[in-house]
Amino acid sequence: MQASVPCEKRFLWDESNDCLYLLGAPKQESEQVGNGHRKHPQKSKKSDVYCPHAYLELKFAETLSPDDKMQFRRNLMRKVGPTEPNVITLQDIKDIVIFLVINPISIEFINFFHEPVVDRFLRSLIIYFQHYIEVWEDLCQKRAATARKAPNPLASGGQLRQSDEMQNLRSLVGREYCDILIGAKDSLPYHHMVANKKSPSDEPSGQSQGEKDLRIFETLIRMSHKVVWIALQRKHSCLIEIEMHRLFRTDSFNTAKRLCGNLITDTMSEDEIRVLQGPKIPAKRKLLRNSPLPYQIINTCCDYRVLSIGIPYFETHDPRIEYLEKALLADETELQNLGIKVGILGQSRSDYDMMLMRTNVDEDKPDDRTSVDLEKEKWEKRDSEGVQKRIQLHEVHEIISMPTFGDDPELIAEYPVEPGSVKYGGSQAAREVARKKWIARAMKCSNKNYVDIVSIEASEQ
Q1: Under DSSP, is residue 257 helix (H, G, I), strand (E, B) or coil?
Q2: Is the dihedral of CA 148, 149, 150, 156 positive or negative?
Q3: Which of 109, 120, 353, 370 is 20 to 30 A from 404 via CA?
Q4: Which residues, 6+ apart, have CB-to-CB distance to 217 below 8 Å?
Q5: Radius of gyration of the chain (CA)
């Protein structure tokens, strides 16, 4: 007797139905085979939770299409004159961040985002987080190097110096942030107690506009995170966001810490956390409390010279105060000559692409130019002043680190309170040109059925 050989069955995976398919079988039998493996789609239940502030959750595009890049380069990118040095400015970073936002941004915030006081605030944040990341990396390296060694309590001199530097930088950021909170300088029309935009005096009203304050605050925090992240070459995004939320929201409402995880307290000791964040705020209550920046300005001893940077009729000769003043107020074209590093500000645009991402420049590539080409290039450089300025940007300048305080505390008998023009960094003309471009784009992209009356009034001022 011959044994019956079972017939071989072959199966294929049906991607459209997400199940197995039996070859050579009738449709009914094939469906019976695939029923056990078929995934039935689950109906998504609509949430009953009402979130009135969902529009505040900004979303940013990670990549751009060639058409979007062409549109940005042609219509929205800052134009550089032939005699102007082609360096990266804070306005370039702000233009990229606004262009990457998917959600619509109100004209009111565009006007606020292009105020000089906001530029000083963003510049101070870049300075702070640049030093914050350097200290964080240094602490991680030292902890890894001394992991198998007993701690030396006498070797804490470097941490005391770093803690003092971080405290001064927090005071600098806190001063700029408090100016925005109280409506100082150019931020008064955007204060939550000022309701009548057409009033020449901008007198405070009797009722606070909480929705207006929330709209500006939440958008500013998210935009500031992207500005600092791009300015620091797109590194340590979660670390920057966690610390920024801690500074402006306190630990109780640190949403970035819950989403990204705790990158600091899980691995660092209390001494290292104190170096980065300063002394802890007394935990009295969660609501109706100051965030760490205003708390440090109000309740701790801050050097008055750090809080007086940019104020007219105030002169100082302390090396650290002069360094911070130049880093905060100097024009981007002067940063390279001063030897001060503020992220990618002041660096040549030719070393970066259109979205300010570092390009791979092969410096070791051999020079194939002939003597005729070199002589021609030499005369072209002489004829163009702008080219000469661009050549100077590639010169290597020594980066100066933050110096220590001098021996003289520079105590004064009377503080200057005379009114005067406050110093600002950057170009006011570039801010005004960019503001008009982004307002025109926002009005073009806005829905015809929606009219932001407050924003239109702000743009008419």
Answers
A1: helix
A2: negative
A3: 120
A4: 248
A5: 29
DSSP letters, 142-211, are: HHHHTTTS---TT--HHHHHHHHHHHHHHHHHHHHHHHHHTT-GGGGGGSTT---TT-SS-PPPSS--HH
- One-letter identity of residue 151: P
Q: Report pLDDT digits (tens) over 239-251.
A: 999 999 999 988 8
Tokens of 130: 């640049």
Structure pTM? 0.79
SS3 13: strand
* 297/124 Cα distance (integer angstroms): 15
Residue 52: exposure state from Cβ atoms within 10 A (0-12, 13-18, ≥19) = exposed
Count the residues in the chain: 461
Q: Are 157 and 105 within 8 A, CB to CB?
A: no
Nearest to 172 by CA among 131, 136, 138: 131
**Which two structure tokens, joined as six digits, stand for 253?**
């409402």
CA–CA distance from 404 to each of 16, 213, 274, 400 (Å)? 67, 38, 20, 12
Model pLDDT for residues 271-310, shown as the tens digit of each residue: 889 999 988 888 777 777 888 999 999 998 899 999 988 8
| DSSP-derived 3-state class of residue 296 | helix
